[in-house]
Amino acid sequence: MRIISICFSSILLTLSFCFGSESTLAASSIQINHLEKSFPASSFDPELSPSSLLKRDTTPMELDSLVQKKGKTTKNDSILKKGTKNKPAEEITQIELSPKELERQEKRRIKRLEEMTFIQRIKAYKRMQVSFDLVGPANYYYGYSWLRTEAQLKVNLDNQFFPVFTLGYAKCDDVTDGTKYKTSAPYMRIGMDYNMRWKNQNDNHLFLGLRYGFSSFKYDVNSPDIKDEIWGGTNEVNYQNESSSAHWLETVIGIQTKIWGPILAGWDFRYMVSIGVKENEHTKPYYIPGYGENNGPSFMFTYRIIYKLPL
Amino acid sequence: MHHNKIKYFNLFTLLTCFLLGFITIGCTDGYCIRNDRGMANFYFFSKEDTDTQLILKELTVNAEKTDVILINKESSVKEINLPLDESRDSTVYILTYAIDKTTSIQLKDTITLNYKRSPQYISAECGTAIYYTLDEKKVRYTKHVIKDLLIVNPLITEVDAHHINLFF
Q1: Average pLDDT, integer, range A49-65
Q2: CB spacing of A235 vs B117 below 8 angstroms
Q3: Residue ranges making up the domain that contains A194
């Protein structure tokens, strides 16, 4: 049931994702038609690069202010300013291009992006985004014995590479068959996402990522006495403040899409493999903050609300 | 118009996935398969031929200081699993063999295992158990029938394993 649901949801959202991004491609190509002529591809500038200008939501007015902000005057500036001030945005977007011409322009745009070096892309910083997971708190609300809350900071490097830092807090207060396990601690993850659809230069991302996770925590175990039914007698199992730490690696696949303005949403699935858990003489941690149950590799699903920071 | 459709479609699918996410996360399959307690596993061998397991015609094992019969006249025995005393650091077993027809004498042996106990928390599903670490230097046994005893694996947990070889 779990596998079927996961597959179904993945396929559904991926379909919508593809549908959305391809349709917007034509719109963005029309909008930037004039700008392609205004900006030669030969010189690279992070803010005035073809990739930044081809953003889906960049209007001619925004481009105008972008040029003014940079304080640069080129031969093409006059063409751009003239065009944007004298012509309303509607006029520009209504220019009709043949499908062949659109295809040719799209190919040219992708070729330019591909010609950019890795360093050029890294330098092309494009804002940060913070996100908050909803699944952890929701599960806790619906009766789970553990709570996982986390905030994630993602840096956008030209829509292709996304260094990621996650800081979270998890707690577990489990009682099963009279045995109590209690822990609460922060955890962190650090890693990088790669946007598979970076050439589209919009907010619809399909990404793959890698993470390293770490948590240092203490836990308590309290169990009813163990009774020996043959010889009689009992044994107490009561361990307080057991200290432990855990390291793990994650592979992530996920998507995000624009909802409204700077608000985005997305989900990701992660496969986590523990690479080291400190066990104590009498106990081993049952729940690891940020990782979940200490019982071999595990999966995690997160659903995020994302906010693009104005930085 | 078309742009709005795309937005709503994305929003719809995201919400659907959100709900599906709850379903997938909500299905827990926590269970535990384990032995109730740690058992010492004995294999029987012939002293002359240590590669071949020996089959005892009949065997009875009692726990000393109790009236509990751990193994009752079991026939064709080549290995046994015996529980350990969870509240003390040693357990004494009395092994009673089949009556020797030629002498009509019933032979017995006594084995004393000494160990260190360690109450363990395994997991929420599996609960707690006692782990034992056998002290190889403090194993005592009579040699009426038994000729030798060798500890192969000193750690006894709730997981099945081979711990002791008995040579006859």
Answers
A1: 42
A2: yes
A3: 126-308
